[in-house]
Amino acid sequence: MIKRIFDFVFSALALLFLSPVFFALGLMVLIFLGRPILFKQKRIGREAQAFQMRKFRTMKDSRDINRELLPDADRLLSFGKFLRYSSLDELPGLWSVLKGDMSIVGPRPLLQQYLPLYSKKQARRHEVKPGITGWAQINGRNAISWNEKFSLDVWYVDNHTIWLDIKIILLTVKKVITRDGISASNDATMPAFTGNNDLHKVNEDR
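and the corresponding structure tokens:
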């Protein structure tokens, strides 16, 4: 209950005070990347229930002659990189926090197609609401392996407190300023989780 009250008050105040930033970023996305302004995608939340996550769009819809999307690196332009480096693309997630689909702090919400790939232990990450930031995000973000991420997520599930959440929020601000761990090595974003083999890519954003 305390965590939900904290999330509601935090997200409501943030949405109120950051409304000019939302407007400015939305206009810039429209100018540099076109429509739609928001990237929407089904992600998995608490108790493995799907919800619609929103982010500011960071990639163009550039396609090859076969109408297939180009690789992430070819569609991620300078403005999109700026949104990712600054984590400003995550701001629309505050609406999900206000609604109760997400929390400010928790394991990051991942794709539906990953559900059958988790081990029993890894699936425990769904025992809490997903977060805009989390324990894994301040301990490597996209620069660590999927197994390391999931281990950190499960650790958070077993140890989270309101004081730990506050610590994570403060450390997230530091990580954003230092731009630490934004992308995986040799990838524009993060390779897809494929169970035992993290070899193929997936378009998690655009």
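(Above: one complete record from the training split.) Confidence is low (pLDDT under 50) at residues 198-206.
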